[in-house]
Amino acid sequence: MTRRSLRFRLLLAAALSIGLALLAAWVGLTALFEHHVERRVEAELDETLGQILGHLDAAPEGRIRFDLPLADPRFRTPLSGFYWQIEDKVRPTLLRSRSLWDAVLELPADDFPDGVLRKLVLAGPAGQSLMVLERRVVYRVGAEDRRLRVSVGLDRQEIVHAGRRFAADMLPYLALLGAFLVLAAWVQVRIGLAPLDAVRLGVRAIRDGDTRRLPSTYPDEVLPLTEEVNILLDAQERAIERARAWTADLAHGLKTPLVVLAADAERLRGLGQRELADDIDSLAQTMRRRVDRELIRARVRSLGDAADRSSGTSWGPAQARADLAVTLNRVVHALDRTPNGARLDWDLDCPSPLPVPILPEDLTELLGNCLENASNWAAERVSVRVTVGERVLVQIEDDGPGVPEDDLKDLGQRGLRLDERKQGYGLGLAIVQDICDAYGSDLTFSRAALGGLAVNLRLPPAATRRPATA
What we know:
The chain is an alpha+beta fold. The chain has helices spanning 6-54, 157-207, 223-270, 274-311, 324-335, 339-342, 360-377, 405-408, 429-438; strands spanning 57-58, 64-65, 82-88, 93-96, 117-123, 129-141, 144-155, 322-323, 345-349, 355-356, 381-388, 392-398, 442-447, 453-459. Strand 5 and strand 6 form a beta hairpin.
């Protein structure tokens, strides 16, 4: 899975989304918990404030007193963070919890209605930040009304610490949830992209010749793609058929004049102009051979061009399949009936059956050119060995004079008239190269163990065809 992979991009987007969502949840839940704790603290402070107001008393001399020991031991621990304070503005009196020690809660001097509960955030002793609830009440002592200001405060750091502990406790569970969500996203992406894998396998089946079209059973989102692929395959087949029809028309149009030339040569020969007749006959035969080879080249090129338009690589058509063993035996049998082939010992070793993804007529032309070339230059023997591995290796060797090492690289070049080379090797090998290019095969030449030329064809097996650069 690479950076350009759609699966990678979807998983990355899912992971980032899940991470951001969990981070937002972590921050939000922590803030919500702190808010909940703060409300709980406010309720506790309000309850304490009510206890203090309910147990206020007046001393005989008229002073306010509060002698009820509150249950929370923090009120008796100096600087514990939990404090209460009572102020009497009429008779300046200040009552406070032991936890304040020698400190005083500095309440704001602003006025607010009696009986109203007010919440404040004040600076406390030892640098503490306090959340304070205060209430102003009127307390009657005898015939006199006294205005009291009662306040209860708690260090806000306790709320902050509670929020931090909650956040720390929540992290493992959020991490576990994130891992589960990422795994669920991976399963979702895998299931969601499965139709694309099915399309890939379908295209491979078409390429291997197991089927001709993609089915219409894909999801609605993928179905337009498969329909376009099927339309492209139809267009490719029509292009190949047009190329075949064109080559057939061209062959018919060119061969008829050549037959007329051959007949004219015979008439000239009957008139005693044998030298002129031989020249015309040789020219006609050369033209016929050249036309045949150019027609084959045009056909295999059209095959490759049609595939190039659909996939950017050279492929045989989906229905292309021929048996290599049957074709080899047929070509060798045909050559064995020619003057050159009849004098040779043919050593043929090929497993059967052996299907290869090449049209039968193209495989016949491919092997025919190679074997005819070998029969023309062999002294006594031609050897054909077929080995099946990752690719099908066809080795054709002869015991002829061979080709110099420096000239091997020139064999099979396009546009090179190899029949005019010094030793005459290479007749038709350019067509062999064209057919190999069209079907994703490799063609190489080397020195044969028998002493002559070795032609090495590496053909893709029918089930594992792969592209070749045209």
